[in-house]
Design brief:
about 160 residues; mainly beta; 7-stranded mixed β-sheet; 6-stranded mixed β-sheet; 17 strands; disordered C terminus
Amino acid sequence: SSLRGAITTNAGAQTRFDVASDAALQATLAGTGSVVKAGAGRLAVSGANPMTGVLAVEQGGLSLTGSLGGAVRLSTGTNLALNGTVGGAVTVDQGATFTGSGAIGGLNLAGTWTVPTLASAAISPVAPLAPLAATAPASVSLLASDPTLLTVNGD
């Protein structure tokens, strides 16, 4: 199935997609409000989406082919299949998975990355970095004393 039409979510408002089975969004996401993806199905979003709010994946998955201007939050047990770019931060809760390739801000990612032991991890555009390896590190963190320094497995 597919969802059609222009969807603009204003500041302080929320648009909620309850997707029981896989669906394609054939519309543009815009605005500064938040979008919530619920339900066990996968929501496929494509094209240029200038939305600057947070797209929160609470259940199921999100496939992004194209671009999203805002941020993405992945709850436990969800996944993001990225073949494009996310302009804001991507926050990945424990047990959530990232697959595919693309860019988050200036950070290029490829392969599969799962957060198995951390309470959560955030990937934010801080400085251009080399692509991450396809296998998941035990821990990834940004040092508070130097937010441009990325620490992987304590190194």
